[in-house]
Amino acid sequence: MSEPKAPTPAPGDTYKGWLFKWTNYIKGYQRRWFVLSNGLLSYYRTQAEMGHTCRGTINLATANIAVEDSCNFVISNGGTQTYHLKASSEVERQRWITALELAKAKAFRMQAESDDSGDESTPPAAGQGGGARNSEVQSTLRTLGSKVEDLSTCNDLIAKHGSALQRSLSELEGVRLGGETSEKIRQVTERATLFRITSNAMINACRDFLALAQAHSKRWQKALQAEREQRVRLEETLEQLAKQHNHLERAFRGATVLPPSQSNPAIDSKGSVPGKGDASDEDEENEFFDACEDVQEFITVPADPKYHRRSGSNVSGISSEMGMDDGTTSLDEQSMASNPESPQSQEVVPVRKRRTRIPDKPNYSLNLWSIMKNCIGKELSKIPMPVNFNEPLSMLQRLSEDLEYYELLDRGAKCQSSLEQMCYVAAFTVSSYSTTVHRTGKPFNPLLGETFELDRLQESGYRSLCEQVSHHPPAAAHHAISERGWTLRQEIALASKFRGKYLSIMPLGSIHCIFEKSNNHYTWKKVTTTVHNIIVGKLWIDQSGEIDIVNHRTGDRCHLKFAPYSYFSRDVARKVTGVVTDKDGKAHYVLSGTWDEKMECSRVMQSSRGGENGADGRQKTVYQTLKAKELWRKTPLPEGAENMYYFSTLALTLNEPEEGVAPTDSRKRPDQRLMEQGRWEEANAEKQRLEEKQRTARREREREANRSANPEEGKEPADGGGHQDSYKAMWFDRCVDPMTGEPTHIYRGGYWETKEQGNWDSCPDIF
């Protein structure tokens, strides 16, 4: 009445039988002969193939066995081998599962014992920490052992009662009953057999768990000791490499710098030799200064000491440019000394005391994905974002932050040399990115016609005005003028690309800087800003790309390179390098530093080809330079900046309320003010109101344009497309830039005069 009972396989026994193996979607399951032996499961098409052709083998020591349903199960080694198998019955499937689990446990124990055989000579971990860890592991193992003993006792009881149940059922089979009753008894018998097999499998699994825990404990101890030894070896190796690097650097320095006897025969003919009193100066000046723009293009080495000991009459231009003849006068000191109108010589005028704090940022959490998932397929610039991702400043105010280090342009205006002036302009260009390193918050998109004035005439000698001149695409015009002889203007439009893990922001448009005294006109463009970890992880910002600063009057150029961050790079993070050349391409200064900390420049005394080849096969240019001088260093952030959106001292004052500003000024924007005060829910509601008001105003302008184009009909064209938004900026005129040929907006004047009169009647109502 019932099928033969096969005994549960003992550990190490060979187990054989037919199973159905999944092949493909055309043939489905095919009958195959499987053999389990020595921890390996092999299969053949027929029993006759066992002697010569094995169709496949899987090692159970690292395999995973999973049951899918009453007859199906899967064996996989986590790699390319996966067997989908099906038994003829549930009982047969359970017998195979039990045999496979036992074989897997034995194979694993054999592998662990093989690994442990090499551990006998490994000393135990020294120290109290190792002893504590060992005792903890031993305590865990003892607990597991006691639990397994309890399970073993339960299993004995299950086996005892299961056997009694089977005997009773077997006796019932001998009784003559109806066919239906006999069938039910047979089914109950199979269930009882399945119950006993499952109980055995349970205890075997528990034993396997204990064996695994013991094996892993030994492996962990072994791995920990190996890691400690590895760390010691790495520390010793690192110390040796540092010594070798220092030795090689000294050897390279001595081999690269030309000795006086070879580099200047005229001095040798006079027999002049540096005296003992110059020894310390020579050692100081021969220090290696890494001012390298690109390792594939050039390298720099310190110039020969003879350049440092020449007088101003022997080296034309050196003593007049940046105080680099003796290295004793700083840039600030020389600029002040040469300018009789410096602040030290003027009477101190009391200035307005500005705020140094704003309310701390509330700790509100919001899932970005909850916003982005509803905006799939929409244009990125048109996605309405809550203020939770913003900072309480508008894009116009962020643009005004470019003037954080306006002193660099003040110093540049005093320079006699256009090449020296170029160095200050380059430092100013780099300094504008220093405020972005921790600023992951998004600034408010300005409303069309929104303005922002930054009047620092009394404190710093300059005035600045920004206006949002276009909304789609968003573009802002900026004009700043200083009493100290420079003008800065720009129109910046933003193009963005969302690339999944990061967002790239490409500023479009040129920046112009004009110095009145020399009439030098400089132009450049901004680099790409990348915001990483948009969806998952902590946001961080990087600047990368290249900038070419051009002096259109003299033809001088400065090529700056912002190196993108790389985890595997040996260079300092956020590195910026550059070379200042004249119109003939001759290098005069080498710039180096980081966009978030400082910039330095070194005067080039001599350049030559002959360094080691770059990646493209070209020879590097070797620049011999004087000692580097610091052009700019970032001012530390105010105390508690991490709770105030990482604002700088200037940024903290940008949204401070002021009297007399235009009604379109960003300081009067209500949603931005509410966010600064920590009332974010009200700010979100106000932001939606302002955006809807702006859309209504745009539709009204389009209707007016349509009525002007169709005065008789007074309706939109048949295609429904309407006319382009005919908005005209309030303080800027659209024209073609005479220097670059690009369409741009240039300040037409009249803002500051209107402010003095206090007549803002012509300003639009945008708030």
UniProtKB/TrEMBL annotation:
Topology term for the membrane: Peripheral membrane protein
Q: Keywords assigned by UniProt?
A: Coiled coil, Lipid transport, Lipid-binding, Membrane, Phosphoprotein, Transport
One GO cellular component term noted in the UniProt record for this chain: membrane
Task: Read off the SMART domains from this record.
Answer: PH
Q: Which InterPro entries match?
A: OSBP_sf (IPR037239), Oxysterol-bd (IPR000648), Oxysterol-bd_CS (IPR018494), PH-like_dom_sf (IPR011993), PH_domain (IPR001849)
Similarity comment: Belongs to the OSBP family.
Protein name in the entry: Oxysterol-binding protein
